Amino acid sequence: MRRWLALLVAATTSLVLIALLVPMALLIRSVAENGAMSRATAAAESVAVSVGTPDLPLAVERVEAPVTVFLPDGRVLGEEAERTDAVRLAETGRSVTAERGDGREVLVAVQSPQGTVVIRSYVSDEELLRGVREAWAALAGLGLALVVLGIVLADRLARAMTGPIDGLARVSHRLAGGDLEARAVPGGPPEVRAVGLALNHLAGRIGDLLAAERESVADLSHRLRTPLTGLRLDVESLRDPEEAARVGARVDALERAVSAVITDARRRSAGRESCDAAAVVRERVRFWSVLAEDQGRELRVDLPDGELPVAAGAESLAACVDALLGNVFAHTPEGASFAVRLTPHPSGAVLVISDTGPGFDPALLTRGTSGGGSTGLGLDIARRTAESSGGGLTVSSDGGARVEVTLGRP
């Protein structure tokens, strides 16, 4: 925007200056030419008053301009000059001004008792344009200075306008990233200030809606668990043990599903969380390493020594790691080795879990269809965890399965 405003002001200023300076330059040239011609005419007339008197040669010598006097008897006084057609025309009694290749000549005809005396005063092109080029250069410098000044002022004005707009963009990105405490500082033109106030109002409204959603989730939790408790009591009152076990298993499955829905809703409404990825991954790898030892699997672990904060909650990241390691144990034969590597990244951290199993077809990796006897929900959990933190998930299959989870920085 700053560049476009500068170009607009430069173009507008240039057009205005051209409209003003070009006529002024022509006027300066006309004034210089008229001045030179006036001086030449005055010199010729000052000599003309001495025609017919003995002082004519002295008058010719005193005049500063180059003057030539053509007498009727053929003699020539003053500067040597050719008797041109214009001189012969002036000898008929007409005062004229004639153009020559390198200047102009002013011819004044004066009648004397002996005949017509022609007084010629010559003005060269250099004399006609004396001071014009310097004046044009000054005008060009003035025009350039005005254009530069206009661009500088336009840039200052554009900066005053784009600064608040850039601030609004940064605040909107922070809000999109989950930072609901971000607020804009209203500034700039009234319209931009109004947008900043509206954005702050929108951010506050989003916070109020999320708070209302959290309250609704809490209320939903209480409302659903009460009938589930009643169902469990009814199951316990059944006399048939098999029927009680079957219905109880379904009640347990329903309770787990309800708990998962409520947990997921709370996670989405609770705002952006953060945790130490190194600590969470280390704890989950320690948990799964016992099963790996029982199945004779080689486990390679590469974790950073210090803390590695990421923009994901500890529970979400733990569920992500469990889902990916659970896939390794569920879909690779016993004895297949696997590796867990967590490394820092400019955007946060990268978690890579790979194995030496049969792998999978990445084209089939959509929710519910992984192509390997799996539901694909484990990878979906990992994908949602990565995307909610501002990262992403990539999978590949080259001599085994490899899942790379990029986690954003808090």
Tell me what the structure shows.
Keywords: ATP-binding, Cell membrane, Hydrolase, Kinase, Magnesium, Manganese, Membrane, Nucleotide-binding, Phosphoprotein, Protein phosphatase, Stress response, Transferase, Transmembrane, Transmembrane helix, Two-component regulatory system, Virulence. Residues 219-410 form the Histidine kinase domain. GO terms for molecular function: kinase activity. By secondary structure, the chain is α+β, with helices and mostly antiparallel strands. The chain folds into three domains: 2-132, Beta-Lactamase; 190-269, Orthogonal Bundle (Helix Hairpins); 275-408, Heat Shock Protein 90 (2-Layer Sandwich). 57% of the residues lie in helices and 17% in strands. It is built from ten helices and twelve strands. The protein has helices at residues 2-48, 56-62, 85-90, 125-128, 132-176, 190-236, 241-269, 277-294, 314-331, 377-388; strands spanning 67-70, 76-78, 96-100, 103-112, 115-124, 275-276, 299-302, 309-310, 338-345, 348-355, 392-397, 401-408. The strands form three sheets. It has a five-stranded antiparallel beta sheet with strand order 2-1-5-4-3. A hairpin with a 3-residue loop joins β11 (392-397) and β12. The protein is rod-shaped and about 160 Å long. The chain starts with a helix and ends with a strand.
